[in-house]
């Protein structure tokens, strides 16, 4: 009975070791897969954040372009009214054309942001009034009514409109600046998480490789030991057979 129990324990120990190895390998492989999946997810998240950052920069650029178009138009208007040189009307006309195009581009970029879109929509009356004011002064000057044109120019109407337009666009740019800061912070966090995840994947892969290598080495050592044992037993058996053969011949 004792011999049977000892043999059962001897057989149970290799089984337990084999099960532990299998569990360790399975856990390491699972960790590698999880780390790879997390890395792919983080890479996709970073790509989305980069797209959002690029869009934010484009919104800021279009808002500044819109402000620049209004300023260029006003510069051409004032240059014409002061000098009566029609050469100033060329940049004025270009700026007026760019104003409408830039406004539509900015509005399209803000289609998924109701708050920002509301800010841009609120600028429409002021932009229309500013264009009408500039067009009216140019029309008066062209028709020879220079006194009326200059009186309208010296009034505070155009200046008030410019201040409101500038203030509205600064609010739009300020909102995008806050988003940019927040997205840059999240980008830094995602970058750190990506590094940690990659290190975890490499660590899990190293553990898995070490476990497989150790298991292979142990199997090779066990096979080598068994071969040596079989070789020794064969040699002993051959020697025993030779001895018995000699005894039989004698």
Task: Name its key features.
250 residues, mainly alpha, rod-shaped, 0% strand, single chain, 6 helices
Distance between the termini: 45 Å
Secondary-structure element order, as H and E?
HHHHHH
Shape type: rod-shaped
Give the proportion of residues in helices.
Answer: over 70%
Q: C-alpha Rg, in Å?
A: 42 Å
| Overall pLDDT confidence | 80
Number of strands: 0
Strand proportion, as a percent range, falls in under 5%
**Alpha-beta content class:** mainly alpha
**Low-confidence stretches at least 5 residues in length (pLDDT < 50)?**
none
Q: Could you give a quick summary of the protein structure above?
A:
With 250 residues, the chain is mostly helical. It contains 6 helices and no strands.
Q: Would you write up a description of this structure?
A:
- This protein has 6 helices and no strands.
- Helix content is 93%, strand content 0%.
- With 250 residues, the chain is mainly α.
- The relative contact order is 0.11.
- The chain is rod-shaped, with a radius of gyration of 42 Å.
């Amino acid at each position: 009975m004792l011999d049977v129990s000892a043999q059962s324990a001897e057989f149970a120990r290799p089984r337990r070791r084999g099960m532990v190895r299998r569990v360790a390998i399975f856990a390491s492989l699972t960790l590698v897969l999880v780390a790879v999946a997390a890395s792919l997810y983080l890479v996709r998240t970073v790509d989305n954040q980069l797209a959002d950052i690029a869009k934010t920069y484009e919104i800021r650029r279009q808002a500044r372009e819109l402000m620049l178009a209004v300023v260029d138009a006003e510069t051409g208007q004032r240059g014409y009214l002061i000098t009566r040189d029609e050469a100033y009307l060329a940049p004025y006309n270009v700026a007026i054309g760019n104003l409408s195009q830039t406004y539509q581009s900015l509005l399209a970029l803000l289609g998924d942001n109701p708050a920002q879109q509301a800010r841009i929509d609120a600028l429409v009356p002021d932009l229309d009034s500013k264009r009408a004011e500039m067009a009216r002064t140019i029309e008066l000057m062209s028709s020879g009514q220079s006194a009326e044109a200059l009186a309208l120019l010296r009034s505070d109407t155009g200046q008030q409109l410019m201040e409101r337009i500038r203030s509205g666009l600064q609010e739009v740019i300020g909102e995008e600046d806050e988003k940019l800061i927040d997205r840059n912070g999240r980008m830094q966090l995602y970058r750190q998480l990506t590094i940690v995840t990659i290190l975890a994947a490499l660590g899990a892969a190293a553990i898995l490789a070490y476990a497989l290598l150790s298991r292979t080495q142990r199997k090779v050592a066990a096979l080598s030991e068994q071969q040596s044992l079989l070789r020794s037993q064969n040699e002993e058996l051959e020697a025993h057979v030779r001895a018995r053969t000699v005894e039989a011949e004698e």
